[in-house]
Amino acid sequence: MTQPIINIAFVDDHESVRTGIATFICRTGRINVQIEAKNGKDFLQKLSKADTIPDICLLDINMPVMNGYETQMELTKNWPQVKTLVLTSHDAELAICRMIGYGAKGFLVKSCNASEIEKAIISIYNKGIYHSELARSSLFNAILHKQIKLPNFTEQEMDVLRLCSTQLTYAEIAKKLDVSEKSVEGTRNSLFRKMNVTTRTALVLYAVELGLIPHHAPANSEL
Amino acid sequence: MTQPIINIAFVDDHESVRTGIATFICRTGRINVQIEAKNGKDFLQKLSKADTIPDICLLDINMPVMNGYETQMELTKNWPQVKTLVLTSHDAELAICRMIGYGAKGFLVKSCNASEIEKAIISIYNKGIYHSELARSSLFNAILHKQIKLPNFTEQEMDVLRLCSTQLTYAEIAKKLDVSEKSVEGTRNSLFRKMNVTTRTALVLYAVELGLIPHHAPANSEL
DNA sequence: TCTCACTACGGGGTTTTCCCCGTAGGAAAT
DNA sequence: ATTTCCTACGGGGAAAACCCCGTAGTGAGA
Predict the structure, then answer these.
(1) CA at A188, C1' at C20: how many angstroms apart?
(2) Contact at 8 Å (CB) between A74 and A44?
(3) CB contact under 8 A, A218 and B200
(4) Helices (H), A60-199
(5) What whole-number distance in Å separates Cα of residue B83 and Cα of residue B94?
(6) Which helix (H) or strand (E) holds B37?
(7) Is the pLDDT of residue B217 over 50?
(8) CA angle (B21, A95, B92) in 5-degree steps
(9) Domains (range + CATH), chain B
């Protein structure tokens, strides 16, 4: 029997990686890369202009401008027929579970064999879901079955979070945001609660892991 | 005139990325991937067993087991004829400059066009060096011309650094390392000086940026 | 031999972070 | 209507982080 061509979108900020993996998975003709995009915003724009909707979306989490979380939320809301395979560079359980919670259908880390990507795409196309061996974690299942609700972060919390990942003191952060130091502490406390940490250091590391803040060196540093 | 085949090594922990990019750059036959490795240790082992030495090495920085820095130091010491093209996922000036300081001949971020990788390999093969537009930074040139010496980190400093990226207090870190809290503070102070920061938060972010510590969420967290 | 870097500590101090306790207004959802 | 969440404050206090000031031994290298 003839197999239909699977149309995919590939959303990743690393063009060379995209081109490379696309070259590999397209070589048999079974899979066609219909849309390539370098971040979520780029993708959603191209998607809204497209004549046909791709079957599957390979989606990275950590991207500039618009990350994988926001992209997946939009996708789930407006294009639920597009099934997402999260393809991420590091095996961060939390980040992956978050994506599953937002509606992704499968995930792979980039350290997988390239053929596995094809297998996963075909599996999602046929069965609607792809479970790698990592999917056995209890956290994963709790989220999949909606037993845990994922915390969302407000604008204020994101602002404080970003400024927490600098050398600024809370007093200085307060000045930047034009609120009192007590308010900054209050917002920080809700971040602590949501992320289940107790120190600023852990908060910031956590945010980096989740891909919520970029991890660049403090501006003043020379080496 | 017939062009010689360029033999390369490709060292990156993401197998799918390696396969993908390799598929792309090998398609014309000009470049041959002679060695593939998933980290520095894996690479050096394969290199020492190889009959012929590759001309060029595509080297990632952030890898498990043995990172790009250590790998490049070994390479410069024992296989100086292998010219390194650093191929890294994020444009971290500090990390790149560090690699140049250790003897790498060029660098690219993975967000480049895949064809650029070919161009860079050929440029390094012919001219010994590849300068992307990022190479104009003053830091880059200062390091290239040995005007700045790169800090190295001692075992003790690395231990403290790793423990600093947890929720542990200095007193608890001291207990773990079986030294006094004052000693921990002393080691932390030398880390502060070397990295030119003043807070633990900045120190840890910096270390993540340099790829010196893995960025995983604190163990206790649930989400 | 003399310096230099690393490690290990201590005294004594300031600043920052973190943690309680509150109050209060506004917006959204039930 | 009432709850729930976000935001914005404040008082007061304990703990941690940060910053000087020292001393001292060790081992590597000039």
Answers:
(1) 15
(2) yes
(3) no
(4) 68-78, 93-101, 114-127, 138-144, 155-164, 170-177, 181-195
(5) 20
(6) strand B31-37
(7) no
(8) 55
(9) 6-144 (3.40.50.2300), 155-210 (1.10.10.10)
Indicate which of A91, A148, A223 best probes the interface with B, i.e. most B CBs within 10 Å of its own CB: A223
Mean pLDDT over the full length of chain A:
88
Within 8 A of B197 by CB-CB distance, chain A residues are 167, 218, 221
What angle (nearest 5°) sits at the alpha carbon of residue B210, between those of residues B177 and B118? 145
Instruction: Give per-residue pLDDT as tens, A166-186.
Output: 999 999 999 999 999 999 999
Query: Please, which pLDDT band fits residue A95 given cuts at 50, 70 and 90?
Result: confident
Interface touch B150/A223, C-beta < 8 Å: yes
CA to C1' distance (Å), from B107 to D8: 48
Flag if A16 and B19 touch (Cβ within 8 Å). no
B139 vs A contacts (CB less than 8 Å): 222-223
Model confidence at A133, pLDDT cuts 50, 70, 90, reads low
> CA at B182, C1' at C13: how many angstroms apart?
15
